[in-house]
Amino acid sequence: MDFLKELTGSHSIKNICVLSGAGISKESGLKTFRDQNGLWENHDIYEVASPLAFKNNPTLVYEFYNQRRRQLLSDEVTPNAAHIKLGELEASGEYTVNIITQNVDNLHESGGSKNVYHMHGELLKARCIKTGRVYQWLDDLTGESRCECCHTKGNLRPDIVWFGEVPHHLDEIQQILLDCDLFISIGTSGLVYPAANFVTMAKSAGAYCLEINPHPTNNAQLFDYTIDKTATEGVIKIVENLLHIS
Ligand code: APR
Fold this sequence. Notes:
zinc, binds adenosine-5-diphosphoribose, metal-binding, transferase, alpha/beta, 10 helices
């Protein structure tokens, strides 16, 4: 059965925009932000993910992200079927596929996707607070770490967009949303802006808007259709349908 054709009718699909959130990486063993009553790995998220937190307690913030980085680089965390299927969809060349992710992990890239926009930064990067230069960073980051640009201790911070900071790639993201004809939101609670508003932008530009989430979200009513399944189940269904496998 052509599941998507039934949903979208005569709507033609060539240009696909995926918005992913923490839920897509849950089946890879990474915790989401809000599933544990606002506690992220036993911390209040504002305590570890804000410029004020970094100013008041840099050691805690460095260590928090060091633990996340070590976990991401361990053998335990690998891309799941949702990441891999999205990589296959892009590689098929049948569609233009852009992934806007709120996630700071690298699992979309490990799953084979190339067009990935990390709007909230990347765990495997560090940024100099004086020059803005960004470095690939696989080791622990501390107040003793030095950047190659100014060689001064304490100038490097995780390249993560914290609460109150401006997300990355907003100009490119706007264009992607204007150009897409299928928008798929996967594993995000729809509570954090501007990402929560992307469905409205895509919809206004004429896209068919799908959501994959096993639980009700804050902006569910804005989507044309919700697949209330996990990311792996939902993505396999959609991608196999788009690639005419099922
Ligand atoms: N598959 C798909 N979705 C899932 C799964 C799963 N297996 N398990 C849980 N989810 C859903 C939850 O139902 C929830 O809606 O994933 C969502 C996770 O929501 P949040 O924890 O709020 O994560 P996210 O939406 O990515 O958060 C947005 O908030 O703290 C900031 O910067 C941080 O990027 C983050 C942003």
